[in-house]
Amino acid sequence: MKGKNIILGVSGGIAAYKTPQIVRLLKKAGANVRVALTASAGRFVSELSLATVSGEAVCREMFPPADIPGTDFTRHISLGEWADALVIAPATANTLARLAAGLCDDMLSACFITLRPGKPVLIFPAMDGQMYRSASVQRNVATLAAGGCTVFEPESGDLASGQCGTGRMADPGIIANRIGAALQAARPDSLLAGLQVVVTAGPTREKIDGVRFVSNYSSGKMGFAVARAARERGADVRLITGPVHLETPEGVERIDVESACQMHDAAKPFYPICAVFIAAAAVADYRPEMPYEGKLKKNEHQMQLLLVRNPDIIAEFGAQKRTGQLAVGFALETSEGLAYAHRKLDEKHLDLVAFNTYDRKTSGFEVDTNSLTLIDRNHRETSLPPMQKTDAARMLLDHVEQLIAAAGNGETER
Ligand code: C5P
To answer: Tens digits of per-residue pLDDT, 294-304?
Structure first.
């Protein structure tokens, strides 16, 4: 964090009283901090405290009084351009809505809009749990997340309302750690910058007839997180996805498909030109041999469905990749998986495999977290603890970058 410029945007919730402590921790870690307060935040935390701990005047008004000599009238732009990261803690329902709608009527919202592309925005909502779960707050959170912001779920515990539940802002120490991690991930000197990266994501649907299909529980969250993280590092990202309910990460080119064969057709043109192919999709291994045109009618007899193998996309890419191209696969297993993941690495000519189990609580399909074991082409294992899929995606890309660096150093390719 040393030497990094951080804007802390504080909006008007009771948790604002914890923000001087966040500033102190960031300053202690060597960061330069400017605080932007919304009008109502000043009711919960004193401007003087924040100015004292940051060593800088606090910004509030978009339009400073015109008669003060030396006033910077382009501050609403220059502050956003100055920042390496924008942190909004606490983020109230009102501030989430204003940012999601693109309003720009105070310094906090102006900083959000003028921040340079690729700089991390970390949002820590804090409010009553029922408010947080409301449809409008959830919609705004989803919009901000789709725009590339990292939104952290509020924590559970005692709330100002006297109730106990979800809604608390994380402790200042946790917030400071997350800011450090985000700044590390947003390195402008990433080895992925400018490289063509293809990511597959989501499930595939294999038609049985005109109204039915075979599929799986994949939500696409992991693949989308990988695509977003690669874009954040400056890669040129194509995301080929099966049917999912997720918004396209900013700056990523999305190609929607339904079946494994369509995913295969969409991926093939990129085999010769991509630098890294990351297969996070849960591609159906089999498809009904002959999908029925209309709707199949039931009768009193048993029905047999003949399934035929689908093309294995990452294995095909792995078999034909040139020196310098990297193939990364996922291996989701319910048991005995690690040995299988090692085998898959060799059989599919992969450079890296991300093995994960499927417990539906902290790992696997649908949930927001994952615990990955990364296995590189020399069969070295790195076990990661359960973490948000966004963080797991960044760790995965750190490993990809290590492989790119190794290739640059002339280490042997497979
Ligand atoms: O062999 P298995 O299905 O376990 O391998 C999983 C890995 O292979 C994932 O990375 C998945 O995206 C990829 N895959 C693929 N095409 C298939 C099946 C799996 O690209 N038809």
So the answer is: 999 999 999 99
The alpha-helical segments, DSSP class H, found in 186-327 are 221-232, 260-267, 313-320
- Three-class SS state of 378: coil
Sheet bearing 236-241, strands edge to edge: 253-256, 236-241, 196-201, 276-279, 326-333, 352-357, 372-376, 381-383
Residues 236, 316: contact at Cβ < 8 Å?
no
* Element of type H or E holding 177: helix 172-185
| Architecture of the domain delimited by 196-294+301-408 | 3-Layer(aba) Sandwich (3.40)
Q: What are the pLDDT digits (tens) for 148-190?
A: 788 888 888 777 667 777 788 989 998 998 898 788 766 667 8
Is-above-0.85 flag for pTM?
no
**Rounded to an integer, what distance in angstroms lies between the CA atom of residue 40 and that of residue 98?**
14
Beta strands in 133-188, from DSSP E residues, in sequence order: 150-151, 155-158, 164-168
Question: Looking at ligand 1, which residue's alpha carbon is closest to its atom 9?
Answer: 330
CATH topology for the 5-185 domain: Rossmann fold (3.40.50)
Domain ranges of the chain: 5-185, 196-294+301-408
CA atoms within 13 A on the CB side of 315: 11
| 338 C-alpha to ligand 1 centroid (Å) | 15
Is 4 in contact with 183 (CB distance < 8 Å)? yes
User: Is the beta carbon of 310 within 6 A of some atom in ligand 1?
Assistant: yes
From the CA of 267, give the closest atom in ligand 1: 20
What is the residue-wise DSSP string for 37-76? Answer: E-TTGGGTS-HHHHHHHHTSPPB--SS--TTSTT--TTHH
- Mutate which of 261, 314, 320 for ligand 1 pocket (most atoms within 8 A of beta carbon): 314
Evaluate: CB of 206 within 6 angstroms of ligand 1: no
Which of 239, 283, 336 has most ligand 1 atoms within 8 Å of CB, for mutation?
283
What's the N-to-C CA distance of the chain in angstroms? 37
Cα–ligand 1 centroid distance for 346 (angstroms): 13
For residue 277 and ligand 1, the question of a CB distance below 6 A is answered with: no
Q: What is the pLDDT of residue 69?
A: 58
The two counts, helices (H) then strands (E), for the chain are: 13, 21
